[in-house]
Amino acid sequence: MTWSTAVIAVFTAAALAAAVWGRLYARRVMKNLNRMLDAAMAGTFLERDFDESLLSAVESRFAHYLAANAVSAQKLQGEKDKIKTLIADISHQTKTPVANILLYTQLLSEQELSPEGRNCAAALEGQVEKLRALVDALVKTSRLEAGVLALHPKTGPLAPMLEDAAAQFIPKASEKRIALTLASTDAHAVFDPKWTAEAVCNLLDNAVKYTPAGGTVTVEVIPYHMFCRVNVTDSGPGIPEAERAKVFQRFYRSPAAYETEGVGIGLYLARQIAEGQGGYIKVSSRPGQGSCFSLYLPRS
Hints:
By secondary structure, the protein is an alpha+beta fold. Helices cover about 55% and strands about 15% of the residues.
C-alpha cells in the first residue's frame, strides 16, 4: 500500500466515522426534542428535568423556550380564571337588582295610576327588559370570548332544535300577522344543541323584528357534502350592500333601525357560536326584497 493510498483510507474512515457519529447525534437531538414537545403538549414540561450540560445549544435554547411558554400558558390560564370570576360576579350582581326593578315596576302598574303614570310604568318595564337582555347577551358573549364557556358539538338531528327555536317566536310572529314556517328536514350535523339554538333564536328574533306585519319568515335546511345550511329568510326591508359586512359587528345598529328595539349584539353572538363549532354565517340580501341569514354547520 502506497503512502497516498493509506492517507486516502484514513480520511475515508474518518469521514465515515464522522457521518455515523453525526447521524447518531442527530437522532439523539431529535429524540430529546420530541420528548420535550411531548411533555409540553401534555402540560408536564419542567426545565429542571433537563441537564443543560448534556444538551446541544439547540436543545438548550428549545428547553428555555418551552419553559417560557409554559409560564405564559400558566399566566394566561390565571387571567382566564380572573375573567371567569369577574363575569360570574357581574352576572350575579346585576341579575338581582334588575329582577327587583322589574318586579316593582309590575307591582306599580297594577296600582291605580293616571294615564301618564301608566305610560311611564310601561316605558320603565320595557327599558328594564332591554337592560336584562343586554346584560344576558354581554355575559354570554364575554364567556365565549374568554373561553370560559366551551361548546360541545356532537352529531345529531337538526329538526328538534329548530322546532324548539321556532316555537319560541310563534306568539310574537302571530301578533304581527307574520307567517313563520319551518320546513321539515331529517338532516344531521355536528353542533352544540343549546348554543346553536341560541344562534338560531337570534336569527329568528331579527327576522321577526324587522319583517313588517303580514310578511313571512321561513326556516329551512339544505344539506351539502361537508356542511348543513340553515337558512332563516324574511320578507323584511333588506340590508344595503354597504352594511352587510357590518351587521355581525358587536353593537352595530343600522341607521335605518334606530327606532327598532335591540342592542346590536345578537348577530355577533350568533357568529361567535357558529365559528366556535367549526361553522360560519353568511347573509344575502337586497333592499326591499328581504334577507337570508345562512348558518353553516359541519356534518362531520
